[in-house]
Amino acid sequence: MKVQANGLAIEVEDTGPVGDRPPVLLVMGLGMQLTAWPREMVDALVAAGHRVVRFDNRDIGLSQRFDHLGAPNLLWESMKLRFGLPVRAPYTLADLAADAFGVLDALGIAQAHVVGASMGGMVAQRMALAAPRRVLTLTSIMSSSGARHLPGPQARVLQVLLGRPKDHAEATVLAHYVRLFQAIGSPGYPSSEEELRRRIRDSVRRGGYRPAGSARQLAAVVSDTTRAEELHSIRVPTLVLHGCDDPLVPLACGEDTARRIPGARLVAIPGMGHDLPPAVVERLLAPLLPRLRVGSNE
Question: Which fold has domain 2-152+211-291?
């Protein structure tokens, strides 16, 4: 369903009971739709008594597009970042956080547990900084503080990331994303190529291939240069979940996030890369579900 959130048309999935336990807001990562949250994870949260809210971030999936803003020159903006110059972005992670609060407002939700994956973890951090009273707990999965000294993607992953499909035909796009998800996937919990193709095909057919939207979101990530220095002010109970074998956002990024947020708990998961296959979801839920009891009427 569409809601008006922060003045935008945002696609939302609202699942589960409106009960005693607070809702859980799931914030997905760069270029990914709400359907990228595994059904196993959503079902487990609902079974635990939570109302689960997912949404397509702006510029992705079925939410409002920003094609009128054009595609940023990511190479140029990255060079500016390297030399300490201001980076321009069509919008910011703070804007994405405001969208997420707008989703909660549209659904009449005053407070929620906020769980973010990858870029979604960065947005979740921004939410905890902007309006801590509305964030019962913060869970940052395979994400980063954004500190400049942190390691980046492995060379083999970067090569795939920088490659682009030669056209927008479904078969070409599928082949590109299969290579990408194989490169960043969990070595301890590999997904079959057939399963990857099914998930990617469903995603493309639902929301289309949106490289310009992903580029604008990436520009928002690159331009968010002050978050690391602000994280010390977060007082929201925080859980940081990260794969020991993440080739896209290395474990050091999760370690740095946990170090900067007072009282944050880090859980490092061997064999986990930068994806959410069923076996990884089980490992994530083990520490996550007890953490979500904070704020429950129990």
Answer: Rossmann fold (3.40.50)
